[in-house]
Amino acid sequence: MASRNPTQKSLVIADIGIRQDAEGRYCLNDLHKAAGNESRHQPGKWLENRQTRELVQELADTGIPVSEQNQPLKVYKGGDGWQGTFVCKDLVYDYAMWISASFKVKVIRAYDAMATQPQPAFDPMQILNDPVAMRGLLLTYTEKVLALEEIVLAQKPKVEFHDAVAEAVNCQSIQEIAKVLGTGQNRLFKFLREERILMHNNLPYQQYVDSGYFRVTERRYKSESGDNHLYTKTLVTGRGLQFIQRRLSPPQMTFELEAL
């Protein structure tokens, strides 16, 4: 059966073509046939070994597995002819050595022979005339689209954080403003609430936001229990700092200098 990627070079062992998926993993079931198809050498028995499981985990941990497509091992259970266990080159060598040293030598020589093959030209008609290859190609692109969607979803919190930081350029927190004014954060919050500039939850009234004195940023975070929460923070603009300084001027209120 043809590879999912028609431009991939063919790995042939004992006259058995070893299928590859779109990510370049090799079919262990085909390797099993090339090794003699003995029941004691079935891929499932190799996967039961503790050393095999540890190797698979190590390869997964040391790679960059942003999705299933980057994993060293994948099992296909579809009904389009792509059923079987597909593994990366490192696991091919390990599986071959598990069978026998002589079979590993065959695998090494097969890889050497494949390396000298000319790159096959891509013939689009070959795909169009092969229903199985067409389904495989469509499935591959579907998997890649899903993988990209996973990446976008994973990056969304970082993008939202970047946007929040961008909006807060040239703004300072109440704590930073309090230091500039030589007072404490809690005392400044209390004063701004008493002046009805901030509400009881320390968020500014809308009129002061519209005046350009304050900005409110929103950030999302996930608690240890897995619940999503929204966190709001009041920031003071340059105009807002001047506004607060004027409101603090006598006779309204004077703060004593506090140690920071």
In short:
The chain has 260 residues and is an alpha+beta fold. It has helices at 28-34, 43-47, 50-62, 89-99, 101-115, 124-128, 131-167, 174-181, 185-194, 206-210, 238-248, and strands at 11-13, 16-18, 26-27, 73-77, 83-87, 172-173, 214-222, 228-236.
Poorly predicted runs of 5 or more residues:
164-168, 251-260
Which strand-content bin applies to the residues? 5-15%
Secondary-structure class: alpha+beta
Instruction: Quote the average pLDDT.
Output: 79
DSSP E strands, number = 8
Helix content: 40-55%
SSE pattern? EEEHHHEEHHHHEHHHEEH
What's the number of domains?
Answer: 2
By DSSP (H or I, 4+ residues per run), the number of helices equals 11
How would you sum up the global shape? elongated
Fold and architecture overview:
By secondary structure, the protein is of the alpha+beta class. The chain folds into two domains: 11-153, no CATH class; 169-248, no CATH class. The protein is 49% helix and 15% strand. It contains eleven helices and eight strands. The strands form three sheets. The chain has a three-stranded antiparallel sheet. Strands 6-8-7 form a three-stranded antiparallel sheet. A hairpin with a 5-residue loop joins strand 7 and strand 8. The longest helix is centred in the middle third of the chain and has 37 residues, at 131-167. The protein is elongated and about 90 Å long. It starts with 10 loop residues before the first strand and ends in a 12-residue tail after the last helix. Residues 164-168 and 251-260 have low confidence and may be disordered.
